Every structure is written in C-alpha cells, then in structure tokens.
User: Fold these one by one.
Assistant:
Number 1:
Amino acid sequence: MTTLHTALQMGDLKLANRLIMAPLTRTRAGRTHVPNALMAEYYSQRASAGLIFTECTMVAGDASAFIGEGGIFDDAMLAGWKLVTEAVHAKGGKIAMQIWHPGRAAHSGINGVQPISSSNKPIRNESTHTLRGKEPYEAPRPLSTEEIPGIVELFRKATERAKAAGFDGVQIHGAHGYLIDQFLRDGVNDRSDNYGGSLENRARLLLEIVDAASSVIGAGRVGVRISPIVPFNDMEDSNPKALVEYVAKQLDARKVGHFEVRHDQHDRPAEVELAKIARAHFKGALLLNGGFDKASGEAAVASGLADGIVYGKLFIANPDLVERFSESNPPLNKLDMKTLYAPGPEGYTDYPTLPA
C-alpha cells in the first residue's frame, strides 16, 4: 500500500517520501531580498521532506508584496540561494524554487510603482503592509498585450538563475490571487485581447511561462500551483471545474513534473470534486494541499487521489515532520503565529526536534 513514506517519482525527480513542504513566506531575507545563512539553516532543518518548495520568490525588483521575501532577479540573490540549496543537498534533501509575481497584490508603498494586473480591478476591502504602514490596495495598471512577453521573460530568467543556484526544479505560482491567477480567473480578468475572455486565452500567460521555464530546466523539473476556489486576495471564478480540467489537460500534454491544487480545506465536497477532476486529467504527480493532517494525508495517497501531500504550518513548527509522522500518534509542536513574519531565528529555526 502506498503511504506518505513511500518514494515518489515526480517528473525527473525521485523523492524519498510524499511529504512535501509548502512554499511559506517568512520574510527573513530583509529589504535586500538576498537569502542568507539563517534561511539556509531553516530550509536544511527540513531537508527530510520529500521535496521543499521555497517561499514565493520575486522575479523582478518591483514585484515585492511582503517587503522581506527572497528574490531571484539578480546574481547576488543567486549566490544567496546557493547557500540554501547546498545546505539542503548536504543533508540529502531536494528543493525547488517557487517563482512568483504578485501583480495587483504589490503596492507602490513597497515598490515605488503602480502594481500591474490583467485589469484595473483592485483588491477590494483589504489593506497591506507597506513601508509607510498599513494602506489599502491600489487600483493596478492593466498590462498591455505588448508587455506580456516581457513578463514571460522574467520567469524564464528566474528559472535560469534558479538552475544556476542549484535548485532541483521550479514551481510556477499560479495561485492565491497573484499575477498569473489574475489572468486565470475571470473574477479579475476582463480583457478582450488574446489573454482574456475564453479559458484558453486566460490560461495563455500561465502556459507560456510553463513553456519558457521548461525550455531552461526541462518540463520534468517544472510544476504549477493553482487555487481555483480559494478566495484569498479577493478572487473568484465562474467555472472552476472547467479551469481545473483545462489546466490539467494542458500540463499533462506538456509532461510537467507536478501539478498542485491548493484548497482551503481538502475535505469540502467542492474541493474533493476539483481534486478528482485534476486526477482524471493529469497523469503526472498530483499534489494536494489544504488542511491535511497525518491521517487524511495517508488516506489521500493510499486511495490514489493524490501522489503527494503538501504541508505548510505543520512543517513550520515541526522541522522533523517526516520523522514524527513515522510514529502512530506523533507529538507535534504548536505553531507560534506571532513569529511567522518576525525577523531573526525566533519561531523560525528554534522549533525543537524529537530526541534521537
């Protein structure tokens, strides 16, 4: 029987187990966005995961939404990330970079420029932390058709640098209301060019980025994350079932290494249905993410609904989650929410592991 501890062939990567560490923004890179030794320690502590995804990583200098997230848009950042990959590989782990542009979730109070999106629709009734304090989100500037190849090129260059930094692959962030998702879902995208209207057009940016990244590192080392019904960042779509089916078919045709469907709660009927649609149309490694514990994760991989389970908060508080899940009733550290985005090691690298 397949379990969370069964090895997994994920595209070109052979994973030791099916417990995947989610991309988790922790803002320890500071204002320079250059990864550092503290980040290398954090990731290497969790190297027993089958695969680690990095926090969402900026593909451009004006693509910050959290002030202290890591970047991959110059060579200083490449060198910083090399500290991370070398530390993880030294412990026998594998790590992929999640490459990302926030689109309208950015702010001029962080980047000094008006944010961009598929349309001019702002994130409604919410605010964000800027260098000036908390401010409402701004109306974004719609990208022109002529600008979109430049966005694709940012992701291609980010993949080049990720490869040079020693990453085992990349994940393209098409979820959570960030730039790619702002094209995918029709609650935001109201364009009338080749990147709007039909689902084929709305998915065009995502698939052009997938093809660009694959040309650099190989499709078997590329993956995609989407969140078709997660409302975060004021998002919705009129037909998420069709969206999942179309994206799954397109990614399957390209033979990408993995496809991650991010839920709010994996066991809600609508979310189970989307997972089944993804499973029916994507034959590669399907990853599910959304409130799984040990038992529900084991059930999902045993049934074949998922090939791997992506854990977030549990990996933050339990760097040895893989080892803990080897026990029948594992004790788990409690997550400290107050230190999620705080600077320094507290709540970052000081969570205890089980005695050897």
Number 2:
Amino acid sequence: MFLKREVYAKAMQNLKKIHFSICICLFLTAGAFFFAGTRAEAATPVEKWGQLQVQGTHIVNKSGKKVQLKGISTHGIAWFPQYVNKSSFKSFRKMGANTIRLAFYSDPNAGYSKDLYQKVEEGVGYATELGMYVIIDWHILSDGNPKTYQKNALAFFTHFSKKYGKQKNILYEICNEPNGDVTWERDIRPYANKVIKRIRKYDKKNIIVVGTPTWSQDVDVVAQSPLNQKNIAYTLHFYAATHTDFIRDKVKTAYEAGLPMLVTEFSICDASGNGALDKNSGKKWMQLLKKYQIGYVAWNLSNKAEASAFIKPECAKTGNFTKANLTPSGKWIVGWWKK
C-alpha cells in the first residue's frame, strides 16, 4: 500500500516537472517569435541594407543586392530649417521613405552660410538615429558652374567627410545642378575629380553623387566619358510636366551605356517647381525608374505655396505629419514609395 502511494507520488512529481518544462519551452518559443517579429518590424533601412555601394549600373546593399533609394529632399535649409527635425523625418520613414536629402545652397547670394553647417549636422544626426540614409547636398543652382565656389565646396566636403567618413548611411552630392555655359569635360569633370579626391582622403567607402550638365539632365553626355573613380553615381533630375520622353530617352541611353544614376530631385509639376501636375508623365517616370532600379528623392520638404512642396501651405505642423497634411503632389509621390 505504502509502496503504491510512493510510486504514485513520484509519478505525479515527474508529471509536474514535465508539465513545467513544457510550459517553459512554450514560453521561450513564443517569446523568441515575439521578439524576432519585433526586431523585423523595427529594422531600419540602414539595419536592413547596411553600407551601400555602386556595382555596374546599380546601387546595391551590403550583400550586393540591388536597392532603390526613395525619399524626400529638404528645401534650402536657410529658408525652411524648421523641418529639419526627428519627428519630421520619422513621419516620412513611416510612409515609406528610406532617404533624406539635406539641401545646402552653395551661392552666398542664395542662402550659403557656414553657420548652417550646424543645421546639416542636426539633419545627419536625426537621419542616423532613425536608421535612414542621408544625402549631404552641395546645392549649386544660381551659381551655375561648380568651379565658381570650388574653394568653399572643398572646405564643406572636408568638414563633413572628416566628421562622417566612418558612418554607413552617408552619400555626398557634390554639385546639384550645373547649368549655363558649363560642360562636362571643361568644368564638371575637373571639379568632380578634385572634390572626390578630397572626400576620399577621409571617407573611402560611401557613395559620391556627381551632377551632370544642363541642370543634371544630360546623363547621356556623361555616359560617353564617365569618371575613372569607384563608388560614383550620377545625378538625374526631372520635373514630369516639363521633362517627358526626350529626357527619358537620355536616361535609357545612359543606362544602356552602363552609367549608374540617382534621382536626387524631381516632382510631377513643371520645371519651375510649380504649375499643373502631370501624373501621366509622372507614372511613366516611376515605371522607368522601377525597371532600372534607379533611386529617387523628391523635392521638397516645406509648406511653400508651390506645387512641388510636400506640406500644405495652411499646415503649421513641423513634424508628426500624416497623409492628410500633404499636398496632391506629396500624396502622389508617397503612394509610390511602397510599390
């Protein structure tokens, strides 16, 4: 009798141990799935892709897989500095952006000031905290020829390549839109070689984006004699209502010739940044960029009363944006980010 009770008690103890072990295993398994799912959901663009590089005609991730940068450019940070903040950038990351471009105007008559270096640093800091890629843009426009303020450009890129040369999320855009009496061979190429040499002194790995003639449209011209440099992409800009098949044909020619390109500025209005939206031409552009896996960064993060601005003029918010705060062009472009 006592023996039976003892055997029964031991059996019950063993069952309890087994039951406890099963519960622990189930708990740990469920926890592992939960945390793995949380990590996957929380993975930022930079966590997923790592340091980017140029291979052939494409930008690829740390594993050599083609990726497509998608994002938004600030307006000139001298005029709209309020949108350079973490909440603002995070809003667009939630909508599908993986890249922020910081537009630092190069002409002293159009917003250039060394005091704004701090604002660029703030922008890089916020993008980095959010795991986003960030383009540091030397925004040539009214100055036309990149040689005009070459000395300032060298100082600018010396400062930022020394500061961020070890980070994995940086891209340097060294001349936004060369224009006027400016050619690839005479002006842009020699300027680019000097600036690239300076950047590479401090940053050996991050991508450098080089502007092309005629407001960064003549990528076909550059494709005939690209730079003999590694990890270089070339700037392509378009405004869909103005730049239709004749610019798309330039892109096709350049791509077929092996030129790696990145659209660092575009919208679906006309070339002034204003006017009516051409969604039909815009769709053709998006389809072409998707086909060639060319990244694109839209103009512009502001509430300026113009068609290319992303934020509605009446919106006083500077962050925590929702689609309801966006202009028609902003909503249209955001709609393509997750496609």
